[in-house]
Amino acid sequence: MKRDTTIRIFSLFIALAVVVPAVQAALTVDAGGDRTVLAGEPVTILAACNDTDIFDAMNLSACVNWSTGRTEAEIVQDDEQNGTVRATHTYLAAGTYTVTVEVANNATGAVACDTLNVTVAPQTAEVKVAPKTLNQKSNGVMTVFISIADWLGFTGADSANTTVSDPSEFAIGNATPEKVNVCAKDGGTLILKYRRQDLDLAAGDGNLTVTGGAVTDNGSVPVVGTGSVSVINPGNGNAAKFGSDDGHARAAMVKEKVKNQKEFREEQQKSNGKAKGQAP
Length: 280
Hints:
The chain has 280 residues and is of the alpha+beta class. The chain contains 3 helices and 17 strands. The strands form 3 sheets. Strands 10, 11, 12, 13, 14, 15, 16 and 17 form an 8-stranded mixed beta sheet that branches. A 5-stranded mixed beta sheet has the order 2-9-8-4-5, with no helix packed on it. The radius of gyration is 32 Å and the shape is elongated.
């Protein structure tokens, strides 16, 4: 009887060993925090990977879905249970992209995923407007100076061959320049002339936003710049700025015009690399 009981207990242990599965090794990956980059500049993901089983990079594979495409990723072993997933990508268009890092253990079948967001902003350009004060009813020309020295050479590895897209496509709202000049002094300046009647400008102080593009080895990237400007409308409640009667208004407008011409000459001299006060 005792022997029979022993056999039954032994059989129960065997049954439990067959029914209860082994605990699977846990595989995890941490993609890291959200990122912000400029269009045309590379973003590198360094994701931390952990495997409670013995970390064997030979049995692991990784890939990254950038929302614009999927690439294989490199896995570097840090110690017996930890490693780093590394991948680099360059976005050309501004926007927010969801990036998914996936790691798989090809021996156990375990898969781990994690995501982060990459926000891509346009390249920025320094913009100066002349004249700085615009008459809303004027039919004259407004000149915009865009310094391209900063963004013509990106900090990334692919910056050496960066050039300007068609300057005539640099727009203020729906308005494009009627005339374009390029000055090579001081790293480069675009001189763009817009007809004021083409610009939808409200009276008051504010910023003009100029949008355009640059061409890199990887493709075209957006460029955005802003310049401060003051818009006046002497016939619509702003006459006090020029005086209470027509004579004072005309005199003030002439004075404003002379001031604007002086500002324009100064900006043009700077763009040509000349010393302040030297005749253009």
